[in-house]
Design goal:
By secondary structure, the chain is an alpha+beta fold. It contains 8 helices and 27 strands. The protein folds into 2 domains: 181 residues, Acid Proteases (Cathepsin D, subunit A, domain 1); 153 residues, Acid Proteases (Cathepsin D, subunit A, domain 1, Beta Barrel), CATH 2.40.70.10. Helices cover 15% and strands 41% of the residues. The strands form 3 sheets. Strands 13, 14, 15, 16, 17, 20, 21, 24 and 25 form a 9-stranded mixed beta sheet that branches. The chain has a 6-stranded mixed β-barrel with strand order 3-4-9-5-8-7. It has a 4-stranded antiparallel beta sheet with strand order 18-19-23-22. It is globular.
Length: 379
């Protein structure tokens, strides 16, 4: 009996090394606006630039959130105040709305009240982050942040005082960046970096599982890897830049023919972008190869009845092939079927984003210390 109690205690201790946070898969802002017949008007006012988050001006990181879908819950302060947060491997700052923000977007979300936290301290710098469809401004602050049961003390984060109108349509209250400190606004230490420095996780890595179907089932796991979410071997790919989670892509091919990224290019694994995004001409070529045509929103549409006969698209990353079937890159809705390949809008210098369309197919492990990404076939 004592022997079994020891084994049970060891298993409990082992499970505590890994901290999970479940993610909800919600409707993207773009889809919501389309359903209301507002997307075309909105795009004219606020041009959709999915590559904008990977351009930096000074210390201000840029991002675009028109396509966010996955979000979870964290808390800030003592006692804790809860917020729904988008976990974004394409940015590095944590910020939430504050009670000092009167923008309509703030009024539609949970707002942090510093006066209600006994551990709150104001920072010394203002914060401004430019988005592809607007911006947020505010101030830096310091408080206790709890993520997946992990309590991070003295975390610097942003409290917004203004937010762009597009945040009106977003489900998450704010964003938690999971990229490197080198691209953080005001050189703020990111939340996961603090987890590692404060020795709150077993390993300096986190992993992401995005479910293919259903609202629930997705998760971010801090400090470990869950082998229940993948099959086969993990392929480890070195980063080419420890800024974003950036890697070398050799080519994109269909039926053995190179259709994009000929001669090699750079790609970023990004949970904060729904689509696979690349240079306009190359994305047009990919869409043409799979038989897509453009609709009134500039999206590539296909006949839903053709999905079963459409080809796989192969992304070759550092010498390894990763196939994405039509069932993964085609989105079906009441309004028809569209591909998950989006144009960069003419910016980004050839950079590609492998967003949620790709990550749903491949369990993704982000090793912050070794500077590697691990990919394995999701189950």
């Amino acid at each position: 009996m004592v022997k079994w109690l020891i084994v049970l205690s060891a298993l409990v201790a082992f499970s505590e090394c890994f901290k999970r946070i479940p993610l909800i898969r919600g409707k993207s802002a773009r889809r919501g606006l389309q359903e209301k017949g507002l997307w075309e008007e909105y795009r004219m006012k606020f041009p959709y630039r999915p590559m904008a988050k990977f351009i930096q001006t000074g210390s201000e990181a840029m991002t675009n959130d028109a396509d966010l879908e996955y979000y979870g819950v964290i808390s800030i302060g003592t006692p804790p105040q809860s917020f729904t947060i988008m976990f974004d491997t394409g940015s590095s700052n944590l910020w939430v709305p504050s009670v000092y923000c009167s923008s309509s977007a703030c009024e539609k979300h949970n707002r942090f009240d510093p006066s209600k936290s006994s551990t709150f301290k104001w920072g010394s710098e203002p914060l401004s982050i430019q988005y592809g469809t607007g911006s947020m401004t505010g101030y830096l602050a310091v408080d206790t942040v709890e993520v997946a049961g992990i309590t991070v003390k003295d975390q610097i984060f942003g409290v917004s005082t203004t937010e762009a109108p597009f945040m009106d349509t977003m489900k998450p209250d704010g964003i938690l960046g999971l990229a490197f400190q080198s691209i953080a606004s005001d050189d703020v230490t990111p939340v996961f970096s603090n987890m590692v420095q404060q020795k709150l996780v077993e390993q300096p890595l986190f992993s992401v599982y995005l479910s293919r179907d259903g609202e629930h089932g997705s998760e971010v796991l801090f400090g470990g890897v869950d082998d229940n979410h993948y099959t086969g071997q993990i392929t480890w790919i070195p980063l080419t830049s420890a800024t974003y989670w950036q890697i070398k892509m050799d080519r994109v091919s269909i039926n053995g023919q190179t259709v994009a990224c000929s001669g090699g290019c750079q790609a970023i694994i990004d949970t904060g972008t729904s689509l696979i995004v690349g240079p306009n001409q190359e994305i047009n070529n990919m869409n043409s190869w799979v038989g897509a045509s453009s609709n009134q929103y500039g999206e590539a549409t296909v006949n839903c009845q053709n999905i079963g006969s459409m080809p796989e698209v192969t992304f070759t990353l550092n010498g390894h092939d990763f196939n994405v079937p039509a069932s993964a890159y085609i989105t079906q809705s009441y309004y028809g079927c569209t591909t998950g390949f989006g144009q960069s809008g003419g910016i980004g210098s050839g950079l590609w984003i492998l967003g949620d369309v790709f990550i749903r197919e491949y369990y993704s492990i982000f090793d912050m210390e070794a500077h590697y990404i691990g990919l394995a076939k999701s189950v």
